[in-house]
Specification:
The chain has seven helices and 13 strands. With 295 residues, the protein is α+β, with helices and mostly antiparallel strands. Strand 10 and strand 11 form a beta hairpin.
C-alpha cells in the first residue's frame, strides 16, 4: 500500500528518509540550484533544513556519491557537486521510483508548459516526487506558464486484485478501506497542493483525477509527451499493521518499483513506446475512466 519511508516529527511534519533527501538534493542538482563544482551545504546545514540527525544526512550523501553526483569529501570541507551534463538524464539506467521519478519531474518542470499523465494505485510516489518542484514554484524559482496533471487510479468500488488479504477473507473490507483511505488522502494532497499555486503564485494550473474500473498491474508516468516512465507492480506477500492488527496481505510497494525510462526523441523504438503509451492513456481517459470521488 505504498508505505512512506520517512517518519514524522513531533509537530506532525514529515521527517524525510535518506532516500527522500537524496531525491530532493538530486532534483536541486538537476535543476542547477546546486551547480557543478559547487560545495554541498554542510551536514549541519542539511540536518537543520530537513530536521533530521547527521547520520541520516550522511546516508543521503552516500547515495549521491554512489549515483556519481558528489565527489569524495575532503577532511574539513564539504564534498563538491559532480553533476553530469543535462544530456545524461536521457541515458540513466532504470531506477526505483523513489530515486528516479523526482529528477525526471524536475527536468519536466524546466519546460514552459508542463504536462504529467499518470496511472498508479495511489498518488503517493507522485506527491513525494513533486515536493521539490512545488517548493521551487512557491518561491518563484520555477515559473512554468502552464501545469496540467491527469491521474488515473482504481475506482473505490472495485474488488482490487491487490492489495488484498493473503489468507483471512474476512479482512477483505479492512484491507480495502485502508487502501481507499490512502488513495483518497494522497489524491487530495495532489489536488490541493497544485491548485494552491493558482492563488499563491497566480499560475495556470489544472489537476484532474479519474477512476479506473480495474487494478492496474503497472504504473506509468508520461512527462510533457516526450518521456514515458514504466514500471511493473511486483506483488509480494507481507504483513502490515491495519487498525492495530497485524494482517498478512498481497501487495506491491510502488516506491520500490523499477522505472524504465523511454525518450520520445531520437530513438525510434522509444519514440513508438512513448507515442503508444500516450495513446493508451488517452484512450482510457476518454472511455473507461470516470469521475472520481475523494472522501
Amino acid at each position: 500500500m505504498n508505505s512512506e519511508h520517512g517518519q514524522h516529527m513531533a509537530d506532525g511534519r514529515h521527517k524525510p528518509s535518506p532516500a527522500e533527501m537524496a531525491e530532493i538534493l538530486t532534483g536541486r542538482i538537476r535543476s542547477g540550484l546546486l551547480q557543478h563544482g559547487q560545495r554541498m551545504p554542510t551536514q549541519e546545514q542539511l540536518a537543520d533544513e530537513f530536521g533530521v540527525e547527521r547520520r541520516a544526512i550522511r546516508q543521503a550523501l552516500d547515495l549521491l556519491r554512489r549515483a556519481g553526483l558528489l565527489s569524495a569529501a575532503v577532511k574539513g570541507a564539504p564534498a563538491r557537486i559532480t553533476r553530469p551534463s543535462a544530456s545524461d538524464v536521457s541515458t540513466q539506467r532504470p531506477e526505483q521510483t523513489d530515486a528516479g521519478l523526482g529528477p525526471r519531474l524536475m527536468a519536466a518542470f524546466q519546460e514552459p508548459h508542463v504536462r504529467i499523465d499518470a496511472v498508479s494505485l495511489t498518488a503517493e510516489s507522485l506527491n513525494l516526487a513533486l515536493a521539490e518542484p512545488l517548493r521551487l514554484m512557491r518561491t518563484g524559482q520555477l515559473s512554468p506558464a502552464t501545469v496540467r496533471v491527469r491521474l488515473m487510479v482504481p475506482s473505490r468500488d472495485l474488488e482490487l486484485a491487490f492489495p488484498r488479504p493473503a489468507g483471512d477473507i474476512g479482512k477483505v473490507r479492512l484491507v480495502h478501506e485502508r487502501w481507499l483511505a490512502l488513495r483518497n488522502s494522497h489524491g487530495q494532497v495532489l489536488r490541493s497542493s497544485l491548485r494552491a499555486l493558482r492563488t499563491t503564485r497566480d499560475l495556470d494550473v489544472e489537476v484532474t483525477l479519474r477512476a479506473l474500473p480495474f487494478t492496474p498491474p503497472v504504473k506509468l508516468y508520461l512527462l510533457n509527451g516526450e518521456t514515458a516512465l514504466f514500471a511493473f507492480y511486483t506483488v509480494t506477500k507481507r504483513k502490515e499493521q491495519i487498525d492495530g492488527t497485524s494482517t498478512e496481505i498481497y501487495d506491491a510497494l510502488g516506491s520500490e518499483s523499477v522505472l524504465f525510462p523511454f525518450e520520445g526523441v531520437g530513438q525510434p523504438r522509444d519514440e513508438v513506446f512513448v507515442a503508444q503509451s500516450q495513446a493508451w492513456f488517452d484512450g482510457l481517459w476518454g472511455t473507461l475512466a470516470k469521475e472520481i470521488t475523494l472522501g
